[in-house]
Design brief:
Largest sheet: 6 strands, mixed
Distance between the termini: 48 Å
Radius of gyration: 28 Å
Number of helices: 14
Number of strands: 17
Low-confidence stretches: none
Strand order of the largest sheet: 2-1-3-8-7-6
Shape: elongated
Structural class: alpha/beta
Length: 412
């Protein structure tokens, strides 16, 4: 299997001014065509650092792709470095200059003299004409490697990759149908380390398919990756491992690939003919926002109550009654769930309530959270202790809340 590396070039990437979306895209399209991406790196606009990164990459890999650094300004150094490494001087290409001038004219802009720089590519290299922008790419061929230089603008890079580079790579390396295919299982309700213990034997190196995990707040992704000659063979390999993982983790798995917890909840509610209303306090509308973004008619309405006064008014009780109930947050959460169901209709009413237990000097909190679901057959409740920064706590609480609703739906 052919090996590739990607070098994203631009100081703006290192400064956090722009997020690199090109490398993940390249990882996906290369794997779909049977090319193994073994490394990505980001380098600033410095001649010697770009030179060092490229020099090392061509020793390890047959295919090296650079993005960025082929614009018209002084800090666009990629073409100069590649010319230096390959020993091929930069040569002016009149036909590329005509295309650049044509793009400026078509867009109603005046071309400045420094744009001529973009019509220079290393001698003997293959030009990659760019109808989407003013930065043509190029391919430098060597008996041991190829360097492919692409613009950093994402829509230009993707167009050139799909229409020029992939066909070139498939022909140059006789790729045929060899692919890397993967599937993602999405899990919540258990931490990454606990999941790792349950599937430890499946995560050993040098296995095909290989299994890995990726953790985010409240959510774990299990990636199953197979190498095969075609998609059907890869899918068959993945299927056997997936079956074993599902057997071990059961309903901890809530979806696969790009599915979301809230999306699958709403699909299940639609199937069951159920609708839900939500009231939440410390999560600040995260639960409602996630459900609303599915655009499902199963979500009726969400309400945010940010203070004790707003909770009291919502429940329509006196301050004396509220002060008494407020000492029992579980009861308070159940009253909120009943009230939101009665107020807005639907078969389900859900509430999420939080209490701060303590806060340290580093800005981290410890909170007690309460969840209640009012259903036609009675109340379902849950509570959890959460710790960490407030934003992370809110996100984790929203995932716990949605998973609580999901498991109720599975039970019926």
């Amino acid at each position: 299997m052919r090996r590739a590396e990607v070098i994203a070039i631009g100081s703006e990437l290192l400064l956090g001014q722009i997020i690199d979306t090109n490398s993940p895209y390249l990882a996906r399209i290369l794997s779909e065509n049977g090319i193994e991406l073994i490394r990505t790196q980001t380098v600033g606009d410095d001649f010697h650092r770009i030179e060092e990164a490229l020099s090392e990459a061509i020793k390890r890999s047959e295919i090296v792709i650079t993005t960025g650094g082929i614009g018209p300004t002084e800090d666009d150094l990629t073409r100069d470095v590649i010319a230096h490494i390959s020993g091929c001087p930069l040569i002016f290409q009149p036909h590329l200059m005509q295309q650049i001038e044509g793009i400026f004219k078509r867009r109603g802009f005046r071309m400045t003299e420094n744009n001529r720089k973009q019509a220079y590519i290393p001698y003997g290299s293959i030009p990659i004409e760019n109808p989407k922008g003013t930065a043509p790419g190029f391919i430098v061929e060597n008996k041991n490697y190829v360097i492919i230089s692409l613009p950093g603008v994402p829509h230009e890079m993707k167009f050139l990759m799909e229409n020029t580079v992939i066909p070139y790579l498939r022909k140059r390396f006789n790729l045929k149908d060899q692919i890397i295919h993967y599937k993602v299982l999405r899990v919540c309700g258990l931490g990454e380390s606990a999941i790792g213990i349950q599937i430890k034997d499946l995560m050993k190196q040098d296995q095909n398919p290989s299994v890995g995990t990726l953790a985010s707040i409240g959510d774990i992704k299990i990636r199953i990756t197979a190498k095969a000659d075609n998609k059907e063979e890869a899918s068959s390999l993945i299927g056997g491992v997936e079956k074993e993982i599902r057997k071990r983790l059961g309903n901890l798995i809530y979806g696969e690939d790009d599915e979301t917890l809230q999306g699958n909840i709403c699909k299940e509610m639609e199937r069951l003919g159920l609708k839900i209303s939500v009231v939440e306090t410390f999560t600040g509308g995260l639960i409602s926002n996630k459900l609303a973004n599915t655009e499902s008619q199963s979500f009726i309405q969400g309400l945010i109550l940010s203070s004790e006064i707003s909770i009291q008014r919502f429940l329509r009780i006196s301050k004396v009654e509220f002060d008494f109930i407020n000492n029992d947050p579980k009861q308070l959460a159940s009253l909120m769930a009943k009230r939101v169901r009665n107020e807005y209709g639907g078969e389900l009413g859900f509430s999420c309530l939080g209490r701060i237990l303590n806060k340290d000097f580093e800005g981290e909190y410890k909170m007690e959270s309460f969840y209640c679901l009012d259903t036609p057959s009675g109340l379902e409740s849950k509570e959890s202790i959460l710790g960490g920064e407030l934003l992370a706590i809110k996100e984790r609480a929203s995932i716990i809340a949605l998973d609580f609703i999901r498991k109720y739906l599975l039970s019926i």
